[in-house]
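Hi R.,

Here's the chain you asked about this morning:
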Amino acid sequence: MKKNVMSTALAAAVVSATGGVNAGGEYLAGDFHNHTTCSDGSTSVKTLTRKSLEYLDWFIHVGHSGRGSRDCRISDFLYLNRDSEFNRGLWVNSLPNGAADIKGDPTFQTMRTGTQVEAMWRWQSLQEYNFDSIVEERNLPDNRGKTAFLGLEWVVPGHEHSSNAISNGQYEQVPNADAMAQFEYCFARNSDDTSMGGGQGWTCELSEAGNNKIKALFAGRAEEGIADYNSTLTGGINIADTGEHVKSTAAILWMQENFPGESFAVQAHVERQGAFIPDDDEGYNIEHLRDWNSVAPDVAFGFESQPGHQGQFSRGSYNASRPTSGLYTFGGTGCYGAAEAAMPGKDFDGTPLTLADFAAGGKYEIIDDNEDPAKVTLCRPGIRTMWDAMLSEGRRYWFFASSDWHNRGSFGPLDFETTNDFWPGEYQENYVWVYNTPDANPAQGIVDGLRSGNSYTVQGQLIDSDLKFEACYRNYCATMGETLEVPYGAKIKVRLVVSDPAGPNNSPYKFYNPSLLQIGKYVPVNEPRLAHVDLIRGKVSGPIAPADPEYYNPLAPESTHIAKSWSNLDKPNKKNKARKSKLNYSFRAHTDSYVRARGSNIPAGTPNERDIYGNPLSDNLSDNIPCSDADCPPHAGGILTADVEAWADIWFHTNPIFIKVVYDGYAKAKDDKGDG
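And the predicted structure, written out as tokens:
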């Protein structure tokens, strides 16, 4: 029998994963998906940057690809309200000299907004108009020490959207967004500009090695586009890109080749447009997430499965009429991160869906009976999620949330109600670990933090920045995004410490939570309490090859399970005035694995909200919950919906910690129920 020791290499690997978990930094809250008058938002860049930094520590502003007629800098609160002027704020009439100096190929630069007006290519507005307003706001005395920079909600060839940013240049002595602008010129699906960036000489090719990588990935996959990406370029660019998943993957690799370590691309609201169909330019399937992460793991390192638009009547703007994958959100999160997805166009038993399934009396009559069955992805409550399928390969692939701020729906930006969006940081936060190191480019620190995986998301201020999540073997520990290497049979101790802040959150509503009234709990909506936490574990079996049919399977392995649940955390405790939960779990490591955590203010088994295991149910069921308090707002119509639903049902989600078993050491162990 080997001695109970670690090899020198193993010990070094474990120590490098910790160095004192979370030493020398802090969790900072931020948002990277939102909109201004640069595209289709209702607030100017200055206004949104200022308001977001009231709530947040860091802020990345994005807007849609393509072109637009609206000036980024216009004053905004009347936009789209009944008192607004229809042509208010167009490039053609809002600048000091009466018209913008619009660059690029003019052939496609008109948009109809009552009259013919010029439209500006998005790359130019990024480079010349959008960015300066962010710089001005971040330099104000009240915002010193906070980070703000420019990104892009990329309109993706072959798909819908992605939240992207490139930190390069954004904190130079003379700040610039040139890198971000060139990416937009090269790869926006809805851009027909061939001007090389108005004469800046921009071209969009990959290196020969990069192009060969793309060709190898897509060999034999004709439905995804022409595998030889460089061959599709004319004048250095490809603008004929309908259905081109190849082009979107090449774009991710272009970021990694040209701006390594400085860029990221996080697929946005990935479930919203349903399954991918060639030439449809909408949905994402799991193979597309895998493709991006395979070619550029330092760029495509996560997805936004928790969308914005949390105040809509169809939470997250997810609904059956699209149909969204899973049809609705589950606890405010899409099914790819919070439920179990079937193969696109099939039932969970593999039976192809038909139009008859959607007709009156059919199994899924909630879906429009004119819908293409191939576009429908069914989902059900559970923890074998698409995200877990990625993690079970060992992919460093992270979970994010965003505000997707546009406006407050039927209310004004300064009203407290909303039937659409919350300000960035008002409701959702991405807490990202950022090291306390002097850095002339703090944008780089945010990108590094996002890439690290040492982050978690919070709705409704359920918990705060004082989180500790670690897996330890003896004195060696790893936290989110890290890997703890241990000998076979080692006893792993998992510790999760979360602080549930006392007092009210940002909710304007003070009446009792309608969801909890169903089970006899009297808790004000604006004073939520953490009630239930799950620790989820899964085995890591290694990467799946594109030629393997499992590459297209979104259902995680059966080994994915809830390892431990903690309930009744909201029970009053006079000894715990800080409302801090210290949760512990141990298991023996006999195989590579990961652990992640989630928690909510709603207990398991709550009708219309949770199944008996604590899994979130489809959010359309909240319409069955009455909101009958006299202070329940009229726009809710007497049921739990819109912004009231969002404040009533809140979650936190952590990113995973990986456990890797190394067989050059041995830990004497007795099998137990926590056997890994």
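Residues 1-20, 78-87, 669-675 have pLDDT under 50 and may be disordered.

Let me know if you need anything else.
M.
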